[in-house]
Amino acid sequence: MEHQQDSNESEFSLLHPMAMGGINGGDGYTFQERYIVCNIPKWLSDPQFMRIMYEGTGDVDVVYKNELKSFYDHIQVKDHNVTPAELKQVVDGFVKIDNGTEKIYRHFILTSLSVSQTVKSLAEALIRYREAEILYAENDREKALRTTKEALLRKIEDLGIKDHTDFILKKLKFEIGKFDFNDNGTCKRMFISTLVEHPKYKENFAHIIAPVYSVLIEQVLAHRGKVFESDKIDILINTVLLNPQKIGKDNVLHFHNWSFEKFDPEATIKLDWSHLFDRDTRLVPDADVWNNELIPQLLTARKDLAKTTTNRHIIFRGKCSLSSCIALGLAFPEVGNWTFELIQPPQTKPWRSDAEKIAGYKFLHKEISTSTDILRIGSEVAIVFSITGKAIPDVSSYFTTSFIPIKKIISIEPKSLPGNFSIQNDSEAVSLASAAKDVIKQMVNKYKATKIHLFYFGPAGLAIFLGQKLTSVGAIQLYEFQDPGYKPSCLLKS
Fold first, then answer.
1. Would the N or C end of the chain have less CB density within 10 A of its end CB?
2. How far is the CA of 478 from the CAs of 143, 328, 382, in angstroms?
3. Segment 442-469 mean pLDDT
4. Residue 177 has what DSSP assignment?
């Protein structure tokens, strides 16, 4: 029997698609989850705070209670620039929720990375108007604020949301561009600094508090669509602070490819593929071995580790093929809150995958014009990383003889000339990996690519960081250089 559409679907309820969108949407909500975790210390500092619900009526609902009644705040979190058209959609949704819940909500808050200039103008005018309301006595307020209110109403009308004027004046709030919650490193620093100031926890050191971030972000994910009580949050924080061993010791991965060697610190996880690799002959496994044996081992290692510890930081040691490094990063992705720490020779300071990104980071990328015997009508694109050396000539030679139907070859290089020191530190590596991921997604969408052929000539650390970010871009065919040319290695599914 077919499901009958609810005749009252226009009315809001917790079963309305508006309330179920995030729960039904699957992965990819790390911006919202980091926003919630970073604001938990602030909410806990308010003695009236009771609980939160992630993906309840919206992204997050916050409940407060005094001696007489409860107060509810509804928050929508956007990780992009909000335009006037999107603001109208958001306000329409807010009003639907407000009406559907009998107007019990105190505030409706739109949090966003940025907004258009006209939306920003409204947000600033609302703040100015509300501050002025506090300044004037109630019986003088209407006269004193007449022209200010008229100017505010014109802004509301210009944005096409005049029908909701009373709601906007009384309940709508904005939080704009306070932090980039896409940046895991920034979020951790914000979280630590805020929690350290909380009266309950300020006696503890920041390095003791830091593990709380990883535990809470996992719990926020686990409570998607469920109530997360303040008591439970409090217990989780105290458990980690008082018993830090509960989160597990450092995860140290020794990953052996080209050779089997001894590394410090001692391994808690080992992957030994050295019998399948030989550096002198550049021997690597055949594609079937990669796809049927080795990649499943990486996925199993991640599942096993996730079962035994909430600590998602991995100290990496090993001398590995670049395909292994990219595959390792993809197996332990950034969206799963996994982080890596490694030594990248010849540099001596460790690289971390959660290093702070460089604002406005610039790099080079271009679509290569090729001869017709290389470029063919097809549904696949090639992405070529030339970080420590130029890879394009060998890639072009490969496609000349392989007869793979490639639509376009896209070259990615650092701003400085390719070489051993083209990437100076982990912040540059993280910034390049993040920016490259955006370009790859753009190219996949632009050319409607069904597969990516990825050629990588660069440092192992950057390869791992890149792999961590390569989620939701489709099938990725990796290659290893086998002088005098390239050979397919593994096919990854992102």
1. N
2. 70, 12, 10
3. 96
4. S
| Cα distances (angstroms) measured from residue 173 to each of 61, 154, 170, 210 | 14, 18, 9, 30
The pLDDT assigned to 206 comes to: 63
**Alpha carbon separation from 379 to 264, 347, 453, 490 (Å, rounded):** 45, 40, 11, 19
Q: Are strands 406-414 and 363-368 parallel, antiparallel or unpaired?
A: antiparallel
**pLDDT by residue (tens digit) across 224-270?**
888 999 998 998 888 888 875 555 567 999 999 999 999 999 999 99
Contact 431, 289 (CB under 8 A): no
The CA distance from 306 to 328, in Å, is 15
Give the pLDDT confidence score for residue 116 in this predicted structure: 95
Distance CA 35, CA 181 (A): 6
Residue 487: the pLDDT is 92
What pLDDT does 138 receive? 86
Q: Which residue from 96, 93, 73 is spatially nearest to 82, judged by alpha carbons?
A: 93
Range 28-48 average pLDDT: 85
Cα separations in angstroms, 340 against 228, 420, 431, 453:
29, 21, 15, 25
DSSP string, 272-307: E-GGG-BTTTTB---HHHIIIIIHHHHHHHHHHHHH
Q: At what angle do helices 117-135 and 146-158 cross, to 10 degrees?
A: 160
Closest to 74 (Cα-Cα) out of 64, 82, 84, 65: 64
Residue 250: predicted pLDDT:
78
Fill in the DSSP letter of residue 51: E
Helices marked H in 197-275: 206-222, 230-242
Q: List the one residue out of 147, 125, 144 whose CA is nearest residue 133.
A: 144
| Three-state DSSP class for residue 459 | coil
DSSP class of 350:
P
Q: What is the pLDDT of residue 25?
A: 41
Asked if 408 contacts 334 with a C-beta cutoff of 8 angstroms, the reply is: no
Instruction: Tell me which residue has tokens 């217990």.
Output: 235
Average pLDDT over residues 300-325: 92
| Cα separation, 286 vs 294, whole angstroms | 11
Q: Give CA–CA dist 37/430, Å, rounded.
A: 22
Average of per-residue pLDDT values in the chain:
87
Give the chain's end-to-end CA distance (angstroms, integer).
Answer: 36
